[in-house]
TrEMBL record:
Residues 96-123 are annotated as: Disordered. Residues 30-126 form the ABM domain. It comes from the Bacteria. This is Mycobilin-forming heme oxygenase MhuD. The gene is mhuD. It holds the Pfam family ABM. PROSITE patterns: ABM.
């Protein structure tokens, strides 16, 4: 199980600079997935319900770019919480700050002593990535 303390201890690497076209240096974002083990469809429904009532604090966090809750359909039965950030440092600031604490208040209260998890998720792990390319349809904003 990934504890909050373990998340906090993760090494801060900062952004890797990518060479861009036309002699520019492009600083790319990073992506962090929280990968949640959810025992069955009932627990999945509880998890989705909890996210429907989420605090909404993350969107005001400096460096936050995007968040999606992804329900598994094929290939896995784990839910993914996809988040995209300007830098590793911005993500770490969120995880260590009060917005993260408040955003996980309910889950933490339900699982005293284990950081959080709540009744819906029985396990979690964090996957981290650097965005190498980011392509959107011409009429999409982000
Ligand atoms: C220790 C593992 C974690 C578990 C089990 C977990 C589970 C949950 C749950 C159940 C909620 C809904 C709110 C609630 O019921 O309190 C929530 C909110 C959220 N979680 Fe986590 N979480 C964990 C760590 C993380 C991490 C590492 C990330 C980012 C990669 C993340 C991203 C989010 C986001 C963006 C929200 C919405 C918060 C807001 O609206 O401000 N979580 N999480």
């Amino acid at each position: 199980m990934v504890t909050i303390a373990a998340i906090r201890e993760r090494h801060v690497r900062g952004n890797r600079k990518q060479p861009g076209g036309m002699g520019h240096t492009v600083v790319m974002s990073i992506v962090k997935f929280n990968v949640l083990t959810v025992p069955d469809a009932d627990a999945g429904a509880v998890l989705e319900e909890r996210f429907a009532k989420r605090s909404g604090l993350v969107e005001n966090q400096p460096g936050f770019e995007e968040f999606q809750l992804l329900r598994p359909v094929e290939g896995t039965d784990r839910y993914l919480v996809y988040t995209r950030w300007r830098s590793e440092e911005d993500f770490q600031n969120w995880v260590q700050g009060s917005s993260f604490q408040q955003g996980h208040e309910q889950a933490r209260a339900d699982r005293p002593g284990q950081g959080h998890g709540g009744p819906a998720a029985t396990g979690s792990e964090v996957w981290g990535f650097e965005v190498v390319q980011h392509v959107t349809a011409p009429n999409e904003q982000q």
